[in-house]
């Protein structure tokens, strides 16, 4: 095969970052609204919860077709990182929103009462008391969603593309398709590369290449999980002084 898997691994990491930049603020805001501000008996809240349940139960092939038709064709992004990130956001948004909401709800009500008793506004209580206390659970949701991003192939084959063109590491123009930080270039991820080698590879060492790439993917996911949990604990300890 030749060429190694460096570009594919970089594409996986970059796609993860772009997806999280899009999906995490949306899920955090939706989780805070549903947990702290929404009228639990209103039709709007029930509609939002129903929509989340429907999205979380969609088969992956439906999300693949939706991402291809909307982001690749209708929006005109073509096979690109931004198309893949938006399709993965549709995957991850229900899971992350529910995780954030449940993590916030798990915080004892005395924490909220204590913040309000100290003169904090409701928003300040949520931002400085509730969210830091719920941070370990939120980090768990981020880790689970990140694992899905690293391992997802079906949703990326028809959105992010199946090729990994050479990158010019001295070109930092985000609008150039040869730039590593461009979100408008095709980006074969490591999971898609493994799928291609298994499904279309014709070289004699295809099985060995696939096994090696799979091992790298597993090791990187493990390192990412441990690193995210370690950083999350440090941030939680700093914010809560525990």
Order of helices and strands: HHHHHHHHHH
The strand count comes to: 0
Distance between the termini: 51 Å
**Apparent shape:** globular
At CATH's second level, what is the architecture? Orthogonal Bundle
From the helix content, strand content and strand pairing, which structural class follows?
mainly alpha
Q: Estimate nothing, just give the exact number of structural domains.
A: 1
Return the average pLDDT rounded to an integer: 84
Determine Rg (CA atoms, Å). Answer: 20 Å
Low-pLDDT stretches are none
Name of the CATH homologous superfamily: MetI-like
Please report the number of helical segments. Answer: 10
Q: What is the CATH C level class, in words? A: Mainly Alpha
Q: Name the helicity range.
A: over 70%
CATH topology: MetI-like fold
Strand content: under 5%
Biggest sheet descriptor: none
Question: Can I get a quick summary?
Answer:
The protein is an all-alpha fold and 242 residues long. The protein contains 10 helices and no strands.
Distinctive features:
transmembrane, MetI-like fold, mainly alpha, 242 residues, MetI-like_sf
